[in-house]
Amino acid sequence: MDVRLPITSAGICLALLLGGCSPSDEKRQTSLEEKTAQFEKSLDAIEDPKLRDAVAELGGSLLLLERAQLKLDSKPVETEYGEDVLAVLKHYPTPQALVDTYINGLFVLHKDSSSDYLTDLQPVFPFNFNIPAAFLFPHGLEWQSVTLSNKRVIAFQPEWSETDPGIQLSPSSSNLTNPDDLTVTYPFIDGLDMDNKNQPQPVSLQGKVEVIAPRRLYTFDLTKKDVAQTRTNDNLSVTLLKLGNNYAEIDFNNSAPLAPEVSETPLNPLIVQARDTTGQFLSRSGSINETAAQIAFYQKQLAKIQQQKAWSETFEKQIDEEQRTFEAQQKNHYTKVYFNGPVETVEVSVLDFSAVTVTHKDLNLPVRRFDSHTTAKTIQPLTLPVVAYDDQAPTWLKGATLSEEQLKKGIIVSQSVDDPSAARIEFDHPRSFNDEMLGTSFSAGDSPVTFFTEDGSGKRDGPIELPLEAYEVDPLRGAITYDLNLFPETPAYAVGSMPLFLATVAKQTLDAHTLPKGLELKGNALVVDLKLFPAQEWRFFAKDDSGNYLKEILSVTHDASAEGPALFAVHYFYGQPTRLETYQRTDLTTVQYGFEVKLAKADLSHLDQ
Asked: Which residues form a coiled coil (predicted)?
């Protein structure tokens, strides 16, 4: 929840707000609801539609800001850890080196499609940028065309056209997990059996990319001793205004003017992170980026707009000019960042855009095909002129030594009674590397469960005699499903034991120059003999001389035939491995999780009796 004015889509942002608030904030909540109701009523009284829209936009933004402040202030302080959002930048000596890696590490995959009329293209980036850790620098990527195997060039269009009878290149509309995907669409001719494998295939994708790298990044490390103190480095200065239990208020100033190349570019030069007493990074819960002076200015603007009888171009120009003048006077950047957990130290990192390096590059990328399974006997090379690291690997690999106690402690019990004929109790836990090592050869053993009624005081009473078909235990999915139609009495408690599974994992570190039989490095590719290292039991991670885990690009399994056994696997990395870590499952243990669950009440009015 990052809020700044002016906001043009208050409705979308409001949908993201957390529900509920603490009792101590009930008066603020009531006041806010009353204010919202009055505001909505005042909108109905405005006849001029343009004037009504202007009031709704600015007034809605101010209400959103107030609601966000209330939600963030009233949110319980519960510790939740996150990642270092600057980890990727710390691997490279300069911001420009990160830019070069981003651009030169990009390639395009040809993906299989379930339709004979579609071919999907997936741009693959060396970094994964997800909110809040989006790419730190202003950037733009624009696709222009695809060249087919018959030399024909198909221009990119922003959306697929139903009326265009030819081959089209447009963004994929079906893949939400990879929003950068593109689709080559072949024409559908009614009555003709077409197969896109007989159509000209995409061989290269053309486009252009631009990335703006700042002059430098500088980090200020702050504690409670720094409150009200201004720390300066050359043209950058940071003041820690307040440091609360779960938030930090920061004021930042860059005394040097912005580089002309970014004078009109929206920038977020501040990255604020926090650690608790363990030294781990706390995840963010949101931020407010407006000072009291800015909020007061926009409130005055709203009042001025509300006094108008009708909207006019002259008045619109006046309001816009006042806003531009005011914002131009705001030399400092302010933010109040909230964290999930008690804050011990704060890291304020500043991107210095007083000078920039603008990188433009025309892209002409070959379309590569790497199916997850292939019957090809030769190993296809996939070398890229970049090195990228997997910063999530160290945390992920902690799951290799997951203990029985840790597994049980992480169990989350949830219930669903929307369908009383298929009510469910589910036992879930955060997925870890240990789950990945479990394989498929499970021996669940007994999964006893007994349902009980409750007495007059709501405590557990006697057991209910049930036919076997009244409930089903699925230990592999950690679920109990029961049909209340078949219960002679209403159950109030479920007591039993749910089997969980825990892998014993042996770790070994190997020098890349002295690998055992069955493992071979061919450049940046690790070739694994699956007869000696079965895929269900083994995992491999690579490091280079920096000691960091290299990011895996992709992996391919080479099979003897379409129905034949897997022969070997190839793992491709961004960089040259010098050490390997192997993880082998040596044992699989069943852990019994004893439970007593107070059952949620279902609506039984429509059940057959």
From this structure: 288-332
